[in-house]
Design a protein that fits this description.
heterodimer; A: alpha/beta; Rossmann fold; six-stranded parallel β-sheet; three-stranded antiparallel β-sheet; elongated; B: alpha/beta; formyl-coa transferase, domain 3; 2 domains; 17 helices; 12 strands; 37% helix
Amino acid sequence: MIEQTFQTPPERTGGALEGITVIELCGARGHFMGKLMGDMGARVIKIEPLGGAMERQIAPFMHDDPHPDRSLFFWAHNTSKESLEINIEAPEGQEVIKKLTATADVLLEDFEPGYLPSIGLSYEDLSYGNERLIMTSLTAFGQDGPYRDYKSTDLVALAMGGIMHSCGYDDLPGSPPIRPSGDHGNKIASHYGLMGTLAALFNRHFSGKGQYIDASVHEACNSTTEHALPTYLYEGENVFRQTGRHHSTTPTPKTLCKTADGRYLIVFQLFNNLNSWLSLVGWMAEAGMAEDLQEEKYKDMARGGSRGMRAATDTTDSDHAFEVVRRFIASQTSEDIYRGAQRLKFPWGQVRSPEENLFDPHFAEDRQMFADIPHPEIGEGVSIKYVGRPYRFTESPWDAFRAPLVGEHTKSILSNDIGYTEEDLNALATNGIISY
Amino acid sequence: MPEPQTLLRKGALEGVRVIDFSWIVAGPQCTRILGDFGADVIKIENDANMDYIRASRPVGGSRSPNRSPLFTTLNRNKRSLTLNVMHPRGMELIKDLIKKSDVIVENFSSRVLEKWGLGYEEQKKINPKIIYCSMSGFGHSGRDRDFVTWGPTAQAISGLTYMSGLPGEESAGWGFSYMDHTGGFYGTIAIMMALIHRNKTGKGQHLDLSQVESGIGLTGTAILDYTVNNRPFRRDEMPPGNRAPERGIAPHNTYPCKGEDRWCVIAVTSEDEWGNFVKAVGNPSWTTEERFESMRSRFENQDSLDELIAQWTINHTPHEVFEILQDAGVPAGAVQTPMERAEKDPQLKHRNFIAEIPHEELGKAKVESIPMRMSETPWKLERPSPLLGEHSAEIYTELLDVSPEELGTLYEEGIA
């Protein structure tokens, strides 16, 4: 059992969102919004039900020990937040939410449509007396429409949003469309919810007024499928999925190439640039593997650039060239091909597992993109390495602290922000509204 | 910047002017959202160097640069200015535009603006409050800053490609440039945060984005599982396909449906939902077997569970499964095709998801609307994607004080 430490969150200054207070009533659908705001300096108060948010039950756990304060899923998506553990089903809990939002800038929530209004916490209720409040509701399908009350999960969102239709295999008979793992339906929607929230904050600086934002995961996913909708809307054709590469209405050459060490590389744009092509063939020739690729006709293809390739109707030569290159790649290690090809300006990429980037000095050393975040509850001076900033600001740096323990800040928020006395707190605890 | 005002603003970012050097998908995705929120986005191109998505699958096979469906959806609500920055007068005009703008966006390789003599230090001399957002593959510093990326490259390096697939098989990856969309989102997010910061401090800044880094940020728990538990994501049972080992729930998968290559998804997240599911599929006897009696046992026996469920789904279309299960309170969905999303989905119709506006060459531009409703600053499709150079004359004469005589010269000399 981890001992509760009731920490004050670390003092941070200079973040782009410093001075903005966010009340977050979110689960897996929307918790990324609060994290991204908190990491840039906003004060984010996460409201959790008694016992802690459900996402604290999601694996993996630190040392595989299931405990609400040890879920790495929770850690990854809830840095830079304070935790207020309170029962908002009870009137006293609702009162606390009202008091907090009376002075807050933003409320983020991802309950089912109609739930917050049903307990007296609609935008009208909450913005009464604080017209500067911005409230962002992130729901599965939106606040109205025939699917409004339907249930969703990340898997459902990615299926209905058309993303899965584009992802999967064309060379594994009978295989299903694939959901890319990593909660991306929720993340796409959270990115949009956050963008709306930030736009509303900017707007408020000039208008003095907040607003209500009704954001939908369904629409967010549906607007994040690149060629799929434009191709249908203008050509009346459905794209189909192809292993490891872009959806298309016609089969395209496979871009996944296996290397000598059993890894994969994404290989494309062979003929995009004459100089790159000549250098590549030179490299292959040194290894005695250029075969017939030094012939003029291939140079002509590279001279045509991407436009030349598109104009070509007969792809026999390009398919052959790709096969020769594929054989060369199969004879080299993935690292050698990746770095060698990049030096020749080919946009080829190693198919890495995420953690392999911890050992890439460009990211780990030069760009310092992994952050050591203190975890004093585990031990004095203990820090854990996280994925760090997703962007680099020169004036208002990213700065994160670890996710809160369940209810870690219940007492400090109720006393310092609302002004409740020790007696008030005891009464709330006795009535089962808070737990400490 | 606009003065504080009490009148209804036309868009949340009204008064923000963006110089948009970006092209292909990632940059235009970023500036599209800025434009959707009401910023004045001025897209800079010229005849010799145009955004080459303009040439992507032009409708009718025409060689016109104004007929690409993907270009149309990515560039609505922007204005087009043709300007050659390689010409000294063109550079002067760009510098004048920088004085009158708030944000510069580009997604070239990492040294291009420096080579033009327009790096951040130079921009700052022209306009100290400028916010400069560069969106490159590897960022503007570090030993690999000159590496070249497209969306698929960034997805491969960051780990996202590897995370999508069936265990034991090659990577399925993403079927499109997810990191062009999402790299764009991070640009938009960073720019708006910097604008909020500037409202407070008066300071501009350089936002140095790396598409790969933004991608690594989306890999969920993979990094922490490694740094805390020393467990690599690259291991036998991973990636998890469509299952949910992290939640330990089942059924959670894709299931085959009636029709060629048609699929549905079902995700039962609680005992209540399991009860609803059993009823909805007609209480078949297998559901009472001991091996399916708890979430844990269903999870452990999900291979057989999935086979039994597939015997039910195969007799229904994806949308039948979706309706039957959702009406019973079970999270389920159809793997929707583009046709179904564009023409059938009643929810998307109800929310006016596909928006239309007249377009000079396409007749009608049809685009995906912004996926949210804002009560005070609602989204508007103000203008379709611009024809190449469509707004040059108005921008040169009204904003940059170019005389009508000089405008003629700019066109003649290929500067405009």
